[in-house]
Design goal:
Shape: globular
CATH class of the largest domain: Alpha Beta
Structural class: alpha/beta
CATH topology of the largest domain: D-Maltodextrin-Binding Protein, domain 2
Strand content: 5-15%
Number of helices: 19
Radius of gyration: 23 Å
Number of strands: 16
Helix content: 25-40%
Largest sheet: 6 strands, mixed
């Protein structure tokens, strides 16, 4: 068994496809067996790549090369010179539509190693599918949750926020140090709540906050008009969400938090009362002096915008006000269409997705979290340092979130990185530069129109239809 060193991304993409390693000498009369050499590209997460390298090195006899590449390396690539690619969930549609990855076999999907029914519903039914067909296998999912200080909530007689209005009211009370200081052991700088608004997350956070506002029962596509592919992100539900996000950021008065993992570390350090985040595998090794923590789903809303009638409405009594965002981050593994070793590549992708291996690997990434029922037995890898009861509560919240009847899917069209970057810029303009949210989103909508026009309205419209679960051509 041999593992090559991590290769440079640009050099790898410039190189040829797969090649067999040299045969080892043998003392038998039989010809030497050719060891299988597989290449794995890992997009934009060196930590994840290193975790895959370590696990493959210690647990397989195959000769495997793991290579980190940047998003820029793969966005314009006409082929992926590798056998397996590990990539952010929101890139799935981009890769499928450009013919860069192929669907796994039915035999693999139905195998005990994949244990498909063990994968939580939102990941199984949406994040790993395109056009009603599975194209990739999950290595990590991404569900933002609300993490809060139960001791402070009890002190202030606060209930867990069920709506974004409740969340804002709780933040107002948590920002009052005069109410909190006595016996609360708060750290400086103190913020009522922290939210990940950095590049790569700001736009997705906006979508997560707007999901309940924009997901009307009669609205098939909350992000784009289906007929003309006109962007809808400058409409009232998104403007409302950005206005609330900007107000939350302004009340904090501190530097923006880059990622959910960074937000998690802020509440671990005792510097805030709430955080929109997920636990990170690089947390403390033991409970130590950690503040008490509790977990809940992101707030929802009974108010929802009717795009057709152009008005706000109250949800029906039987409708769920919690609407999670699918595909915010997380990781998928897929077999490339350029591989000449499809069976071996598929075996490797399936092995990486298995319950034990995926828990070891995914917990090393700061950009994803658990996605299987079986991961409950591995909670210490994600919720490192948290008391057992808090870790189990986190798992239960993720499972409940993934089981909701309705969800909003992030942008997964070809050009997804560009669409999401435009939303990142809109969030930055309003949360950092103080621009009016409507003006910020008007500019983002213009950016989206230009991206769509460049890529072609007709192919993007067809991709949008497939993204909604219709059969791929």
């Amino acid at each position: 068994m041999r593992m090559t060193a991590l290769a440079g991304g640009a050099a790898l993409l410039a190189g040829a496809g797969c090649e067999n390693s040299a045969a080892k000498k043998t003392t038998t009369a039989l010809p030497p067996a050719q060891k299988v050499k597989l290449r794995v590209l890992v997009v934009d997460d060196p930590e994840l790549g290193q975790a895959i390298e370590r696990d493959v090195r210690s647990r397989t006899e195959d000769d495997v090369e793991v290579a980190p590449v940047t998003l820029d390396n793969v966005v314009g690539a006409s082929r992926l010179p590798a056998d397996v690619v590990v990539f952010p969930t929101w890139l799935l549609g981009d890769f499928v539509e450009r013919g860069l990855i192929r669907a796994p076999s039915d035999s693999l999907l139905e195998s005990d190693s994949i244990a498909k029914r063990d994968i939580l519903p939102l990941t199984r039914l949406y994040e790993m599918t395109w056009g009603g067909k599975v194209y990739a296998l999950p290595l990590a999912s991404s569900q933002l949750v609300l993490i809060y200080r139960p001791d402070l909530f009890e002190k202030l007689k606060l209930s867990v926020p069920a709506s974004w209005d409740d969340y804002r009211a709780a933040a107002e009370k948590l920002s009052d140090r005069a109410l909190l200081d006595a016996g609360s052991a708060l750290q400086d700088p103190w913020r009522a709540t922290v939210e990940p608004t950095g590049a790569g997350y700001g736009g997705s956070l906006l979508l997560a906050r707007a999901a309940a506002y924009a997901s009307h029962r009669d609205q098939a596509s909350p992000l784009f008009d289906l007929a003309q592919l006109e962007p809808l992100i400058d409409r009232p539900p998104f403007v409302r969400a950005l206005s609330e996000l900007a107000a939350s950021a302004k009340s904090g008065g501190q530097t923006a938090i880059d990622s959910p993992a960074a937000a998690f570390h802020e509440i671990l350090a005792g510097r805030c009362g709430m955080a929109l985040a997920w636990p990170s595998g690089d947390g403390p090794a033991s409970e130590g002096d950690l503040p008490p923590l509790a977990f809940a789903e992101l707030p929802g809303s009974q108010a929802v915008y009717n795009f057709g009638q152009q008005r706000w409405e109250e949800r029906r009594a039987e409708e769920d006000g919690h609407v999670p965002l699918a595909g915010m981050a997380g990781w998928l593994a897929a077999v490339t269409t350029s591989t000449s070793q499809g069976a071996e590549a598929e075996d490797l992708a399936g092995w990486l997705c298995g319950a034990k291996v995926s828990s070891r690997i995914a917990s090393r990434s700061r950009h994803g979290t658990l996605f299987r029922a079986a991961h409950k037995s591995e909670l210490k890898l994600w919720a490192k340092g948290l008391p057992g009861a808090a870790a189990e509560q986190y798992f239960d919240v993720v499972r409940q979130t993934q089981s909701r009847a309705q969800h909003l899917t992030s942008v997964r069209l070809p050009g997804s990185a560009r669409y999401l970057a435009a939303l990142d810029r809109a969030v930055n303009r309003s949360t950092v530069e103080g621009q009016d949210p409507q003006a910020s989103l008007d500019q983002a909508a213009d950016d989206w129109r230009k991206i769509t026009a460049e890529l072609g309205i007709a192919p993007q419209r067809a991709a949008l239809s497939r993204s909604r679960g219709q059969e791929a051509d």
